[in-house]
Amino acid sequence: MRDDELTAAIRDVRERLRARHPEGALSGNGIPAADLMPLLHARDAAEAKVAAIGTVNPRAPGLKNSIIQRVKKTIARALDWHVREQVEFNRALMRCVQASLEALEDANRSLAGLAARMMAQEAQTSALHQQLRDEMALLHREAQEMRDLRTHWAEWRAGFEERRSAAEIHMLRTISELQGSFQHRVTVIDQNFRESLRQQHGEFTAALDRNTIEVQQRLWNDLQRIRAEYEKLIHTELRLIRQRTPAERVVEHAPIAAPAARIAIDWMRFAENFRGSEERIREHQRKYVARFAGSVGEILDVGCGRGEFLQVAREAGLAARGIDQSEECIALCRLKGLDAARADMFEYLSALPDASLGGVYCSQVVEHLDPARLPDLVRLIARKVRGGALVAIETPNPECLAIFATHFYLDPTHTRPVPAALLRFCLEEAGFGGVEVERLAPAVDSMPALAELPAAVRDAFFGGLDYAIFARKL
User: Is the entire prediction scored with pTM above 0.70?
Assistant: First the structure.
């Protein structure tokens, strides 16, 4: 048998099975499905008849039979125009029968699906009914328990009220007894204490009357004298240090060449007026000291001034020393017990061993340098700090135009401001990384009129009066 004939046979068997047993048969649900087999057999018989129209019955071979077969075929071809319409009608009728069979099969399958869905809904409804019955039973049990509880509470409440009344009476009686006992003991102790106090007070008053006035007067006189001498000593020494001429100063270290153009003004008073009080500067320096927390090795304060950073570092337990070219500042630092020396920064740093410092702090110094010396200073610092050491530099911010009108030119020793971008470049060229720039002291805080400017203009041209730059040795 050929493959196409086998496939047609299998398809025919499948159609017959589907016609007799549609998917989701209704019989399993108690609903009989329509049997389509008789209609299928009738269709097959009709198709066989339709296929036979216009054909000639085969006969045994022979001359007579061959003549008869030829005559029949001739007649069949001659009548073909007459039966053609009947053949087309029969074939259309068979297609209609086939479509009816398929529609009936689809109807059987739909009914089977509907029956299955109805069975599922019935099962779900049964489950809901069972759940409702269980819940009703539970509610009934709970109602019964509530009735039992009310009955028990009515029986228990009478005894509870009686016991509560007895307990309250007992507690009140006990409190009354304890309060009476406490009052009695307090009275006895108070009497004893007052008697003892009167005796001790009499003895103490007698001795105090003899010595108090004399001791207080002597102590007060001594304190006044010591305070006056201490204040006189400090103010006299500081005034002499600030007002001595360079020729009269005594240098404790090796002579160092003085700046080429030393301006003869009282720099200590100048710092107090224009830089700020020591208390304010110390509070400002605490954020830098927090940055140096955990540093390994000694921190060098280049241009230590009055020693505010060194004081805060000492309070935080950091090892730090400072250098400055001002003898007045060095004398004041030593008076505070700080480690400070008068020295030129380039000479001092050059004499240090390489990688010997745990960090460098330099505040309000680089704007005093000749611009050509700035890269030299940065490279020198890079040689003297350890790997990973922090370097912090603070200087006026030239991005803020307000400093040129109010702050920068107040100090006659300023040469030119150092832009943050230039200082960053110098640090990166010298081998520092992780560079951070932080703007400080917004100009609007000291010049409220700037608040009237648009925010974008104020931020771009009147930001922080100073900036701090941080970097670590790679």
Answer: no
Contacts of 323 (CB under 8 A, 6+ apart): 300, 301, 302, 303, 304, 340, 341, 342, 343, 345, 348
- Give a three-class secondary structure readout of 115-142: HHHHHHHHHHHHHHHHHHHHHHHHHHHH
Q: What is the DSSP letter of 266?
A: -
CA separation for the pair 443, 453 (Å, rounded):
12
DSSP state of 427: H
Position 459 pLDDT exceeds 60? yes
Alpha-carbon distances of 333 from 170, 284, 286, rounded to whole Å: 77, 18, 18
Give the model confidence (pLDDT) of 388-410 as tens digits: 899 999 998 888 766 766 666 56
Token pair 């649900």 is found at: 29
d(C-alpha 119, C-alpha 134), whole Å: 22
Q: Which residues pair with 467 in a beta bridge?
A: 395, 439
Distance between CA atoms of 347 and 366, rounded to whole angstroms? Answer: 16
Q: Long-range contacts of range 232-241, CB-CB < 8 Å, 24 or more positions apart?
A: 234/335, 237/335, 238/268, 238/332, 241/268, 241/327, 241/328, 241/331, 241/332
